[in-house]
Design goal:
Helix 4 runs parallel beside helix 6 and helix 11 packs across helix 12. The chain has one domain: TIM Barrel (Alpha-Beta Barrel). The protein is 45% helix and 11% strand. The protein contains twelve helices and eight strands. By secondary structure, the chain is of the alpha/beta class.
């Protein structure tokens, strides 16, 4: 049973220079996430370069991550497929491999109607016993899961959470007002992380957490403890870095940050290429400037929540 709450990193997939899975560096990063106190791991999202992974690589990642976390936090697999048939197959494969939850994207490439989108999600939910988070990101995927659509989807007991990435902060309040605790709400936009938590989000599917796990978890724990000013101080420092997440090159940006913090490499899978020239210098300058003033964090673990 997943507790849909807290910081759940959408982790990057680590590759060797020979374009194979780099499980040693991946484990180093997962350990850093767990040491910081994250509440779950999400594999195979867009940040995880899922569209370039083979089915066997996805299975390897699930099994390896389960071994790394040792049951201490849940492992969630992302489902992002073009056809309902393939999505059902991947959901069932993820369940067989041991994943404890799914984050499901709407149909890829085809801009489905509202009805088609609902049926797509329902078909996947009916094919598995795993708890599901719906990913709502009309900015990038051109399909919006409206409140009325969500009401239909919640007739499926295992649809339990939403990753809310409309960029409309008030949508978190609308979701909470309409569905109460029946639906767990996560923000999926790094630059709206603190605002979303203050507005009542249960958690944050984060990106820059891949390089800065402690800072991300600290913001969450401080907000939940009502220590907003302390959280805001960290968040203000964090913002130039968080803005690296809202870019077509978010994978390269975040992997470069992971290099600087010592828990990743720049290796990406083609057609992505490592950042070059002036753009690499620009991103590196943002990261290095932030590192010079990296905050000393308060003791954020085991503080009492007021929420």
């Amino acid at each position: 049973m997943i507790q849909w709450e807290g910081i759940m990193p959408a982790v990057t997939t680590k590759f060797t220079s020979e374009d194979e899975l780099d499980l040693a560096m991946f484990e180093k990063n997962i350990k850093a996430q767990m040491d910081a106190g994250v509440h779950g791991i999400i594999l195979g999202g867009s940040l995880g370069e899922a569209s370039t992974l083979t089915k066997s690589e996805k299975e390897t990642l699930i099994k390896a991550t389960l071994e790394m976390v040792g049951g201490r936090i849940p492992v969630v697999m992302t489902i992002a497929e073009q056809s309902t048939k393939d999505a059902i197959f991947m959901a069932q494969q993820a369940e067989k491999a041991g994943a404890q939850g799914l984050m499901v994207l709407p149909p890829m490439r085809y801009k489905a109607t509202d009805h088609e989108t609902v049926v797509f999600f329902q078909s996947i939910a009916n094919s598995t016993s795993l708890p599901i988070m719906i990913y709502n990101n009309p900015i990038d995927y051109k399909i919006e899961v409206t409140l009325d659509m969500m009401a239909e989807l919640l007739k499926s007991d295992n649809i339990q959470a939403i990753k809310e990435s409309t960029r409309d902060i008030t949508n978190i309040i609308r979701l909470r007002n309409r569905f109460g605790d029946r639906l767990k709400v996560f923000t999926g936009v790094d630059t709206l992380g603190l605002e979303s938590l203050v507005s009542g989000a249960d958690g944050w599917v984060a990106g820059l957490v891949c390089a800065y796990p402690a800072e991300t978890v600290a913001i969450y724990e401080l907000v939940k403890a009502g220590r907003i000013n302390e959280a805001l101080e960290i968040y203000r420092w964090f913002m130039p870095l968080l803005e690296l997440d809202i870019s077509p090159q978010l994978v390269q940006n975040i992997k470069l940050a992971e290099v600087v913090t010592g828990i990743g490499t720049e290796n990406v899978r083609a057609p992505r290429l490592q950042l070059q020239g002036k753009e690499r210098e620009r991103v590196l300058n943002i990261i290095e400037t932030a590192m010079k003033s990296r905050p000393v964090l308060p003791e954020y673990k085991n503080i009492k929540s007021t929420v």
